[in-house]
């Protein structure tokens, strides 16, 4: 059995593939890893970047490190949830540009969620993932 995640964008739903994600992701039986929400905190304790662009870059770096730690790649991501303190068309373009580059053509299911605040008043974005463990 293939460990590949099946992706779907049925004609009866908006074509999410045009903006870099899938409406439906079907994972195979097996182990799943639940990656806690990553924010713009770095392992070395550096200051949190002030801009959304800078914070997104640090979050993506943290996500990449989490994948590396479990031997996974963006191909193994089943779902991503993006939490933002300012969610609108302009901020989603900033974030999705970096997420799309990180995913390298993979299109997991993705949900954007606007929130009043995150773990610290300086934080603008947090991303969590569900990952199918590689075979």
Automatic annotation (TrEMBL):
<dbReference type="InterPro" id="IPR035959">
    <property type="entry name" value="RutC-like_sf"/>
</dbReference>
<dbReference type="GO" id="GO:0016787">
    <property type="term" value="F:hydrolase activity"/>
</dbReference>
<dbReference type="Pfam" id="PF01042">
    <property type="entry name" value="Ribonuc_L-PSP"/>
</dbReference>
<protein>
    <submittedName>
        <fullName>RidA family protein</fullName>
        <ecNumber>3.5.-.-</ecNumber>
    </submittedName>
</protein>
<comment type="similarity">
    <text>Belongs to the RutC family.</text>
</comment>
<dbReference type="InterPro" id="IPR006175">
    <property type="entry name" value="YjgF/YER057c/UK114"/>
</dbReference>
<keyword id="KW-0378">Hydrolase</keyword>
């Amino acid at each position: 059995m293939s460990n590949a995640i099946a992706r779907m964008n049925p004609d009866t739903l908006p074509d999410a593939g045009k903006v870099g994600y899938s409406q439906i992701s079907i994972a195979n039986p097996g182990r799943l890893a639940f990656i806690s929400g990553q924010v713009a905190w770095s392992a070395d304790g550096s200051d949190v970047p002030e801009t959304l662009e800078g914070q997104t870059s640090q979050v993506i770096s943290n996500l990449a490190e989490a994948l590396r730690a479990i031997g996974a790649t963006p191909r193994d991501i089943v779902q991503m949830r993006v939490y933002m303190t300012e969610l609108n068309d302009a901020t989603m373009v900033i974030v999705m540009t970096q997420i799309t580059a990180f995913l390298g053509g993979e299109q997991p299911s993705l949900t954007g969620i606007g929130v009043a605040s995150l773990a610290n008043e300086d934080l603008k974005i947090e991303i969590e993932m569900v990952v199918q463990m590689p075979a």
